[in-house]
Amino acid sequence: MKNKPLHNLVDEGGIIAPARTKRDSDNRMIAARPQPRKKSQVETKNQLGAQYDGLPGSCDRPTGPDDSWRRIAAARAPAFDQSVPAYLLDEKYWFLDWNPAFDELVACPLGLKRLRNHAEDFIRELVNVEAVYQRSKKIFDPKNVPLIDVEPLVFHTEKYGDVEFEKIAVQISDAHAQLASWCVYLNITRAHRLEEMWDDLRASLESHLNWSRYALSYDKLLLNFDDYFDLVDLVVGKVSNCKRCLDLGAGTGNGTIKLLEADLDRNVWAIESNQAMIQQLISKLEKSEVEAGCDYFGRLHVLKENLLRLDDVKDILSPGSYDGAILINVLYAVEDPEKCLRQIFRLLQAGGRLVLSTSHRNTDVDKLFMRMQDVLERKNLFSQLSPNFHDARERHKKMEALIHRDTQQDIRGYLEGAGFRIVDWREKEYADAVVVVEALKP
């Protein structure tokens, strides 16, 4: 059963449609087998016998029409990230973005870069490159571009052997009904080590989804937790003289907004790899901009990128060009902390300042949540935010290995190994949960 969901096709809005495999002479998709007659619930029950008592939700009422549009709107955008390998191209076939599954199978192994690689860079690596290239030259005539294109692709991976895809490319139109971009889904039809691949994709998607849900749920608590804003104020205050600042692992934007608010002459580069968090950042910044009556977006540069791949975007983030950088509760979740810090070191100019907060081996998560609950109760908000509180607490439990991975000595070693000189070290901030470190690039 684990393989079936990712064998489905997905339309441009993320709606799952049945997989089809046979192709007629005109290259149109035709059903592989006749559609069976739909069984009634009574027939199913008679066939399965006493063990059948209905699947979860089958006896409940469906979503009503008055609420459906909200649910559809909320579900369609995230569906792209939580589906089969997929990517977005601009009208000239340059990569705009891709989802976690494509990153895992294709982008990361090939070293592809958003906004810098063309679809041809992917095609060049295909096993069936010649057939795809010749067909593309014919099918994608600039004077007669297809609305939808379907074709087989074969990609060799070191880990899973040859992986066969059924590509579905769909035009995305702008407000004038003109081609704006392409949404391309790669439905996996075969692989040499298929089961291992599904296991890895499932783990990758679960991790991505967990971070998305964790950030959005936890953010509702943080926005009402004074200790958190004290932490943000402390970190941002230490880069008070910096005019070109990086917010690395910007998350939902709390640090970014504070950087922009604190100095109206400051430019900020917010780097984040999770699309749900970026959307939350943009939404919050739009609201803050209206409330403050200031132009924040004119001084903000948002880049969707992994913190371990900053060296890959040197043409966007120029080495030696920034005088300040912050990482608020990020370093503990980075797979290779010293590599991350070395790349930040290269981005900073001489004398540039890095300020970070992070958990450590002795972080008491229970104490942090007890403090949070106390603050929310005093504000009469705990009852309202209780679901978010318990959800965040459970997700913290799942991340305890990461939260407690590094000793304080490890953190010092990461910074010094990357070339930084530590000038301030505070051990008991944010309900004693994190250290706050200020370091300079000599």
pLDDT < 50 runs, ≥5 residues: 1-33
C-alpha Rg, in Å?
Answer: 25 Å
Q: What's the level 1 CATH class of the largest domain?
A: Alpha Beta
- Order of SSEs, N→C? EEEEHHEEHHHEEEHHEHEHEEHEHHHHEE
Beta strand count: 16
Report how far apart the termini are.
56 Å
Under the CATH scheme, the architecture of the largest domain is 3-Layer(aba) Sandwich
Strand order of the largest sheet: 12-11-10-13-14-16-15
Structural class: alpha/beta
- CATH topology group of the largest domain: Rossmann fold
Major sheet: 7 strands, mixed
- The named CATH superfamily of the largest domain: Vaccinia Virus protein VP39
Strand content: 15-25%
Question: What's the helical proportion of residues?
Answer: 40-55%
Number of helices: 14
Domains counted in the coordinates: how many? Answer: 2
Structure notes:
The chain has 442 residues and is of the alpha/beta class. It folds into two domains: 1-17 and 74-212, Beta-Lactamase, CATH 3.30.450.20; 223-363 and 404-440, Vaccinia Virus protein VP39 (Rossmann fold, 3-Layer(aba) Sandwich), CATH 3.40.50. Helix content is 40%, strand content 23%. It has 14 helices and 16 strands. The protein has helices spanning 41-48, 65-81, 100-110, 119-123, 129-139, 194-222, 226-237, 254-262, 275-292, 337-347, 365-378, 382-398, 400-403, 408-418, and strands spanning 9-10, 16-17, 22-23, 29-30, 86-90, 95-98, 148-157, 161-173, 179-191, 244-248, 267-272, 300-304, 322-328, 348-358, 421-429, 434-440. Strands 12-11-10-13-14-16-15 form a seven-stranded mixed β-sheet, with helices on both faces. It has a five-stranded antiparallel β-sheet with strand order 6-5-9-8-7, with helices on one face. Strands 1-2 form a two-stranded antiparallel ribbon. A hairpin with a 4-residue loop joins strand 15 and strand 16 (434-440). Helix 3 (100-110) packs across helix 6 (194-222), helix 7 packs across helix 8 and helix 11 (365-378) runs antiparallel to helix 12 (382-398). The longest helix has 29 residues, at 194-222. The chain starts with 8 loop residues before the first strand and ends with a strand. 31% of the residues are buried. The model is unreliable at 1-33 (pLDDT under 50).
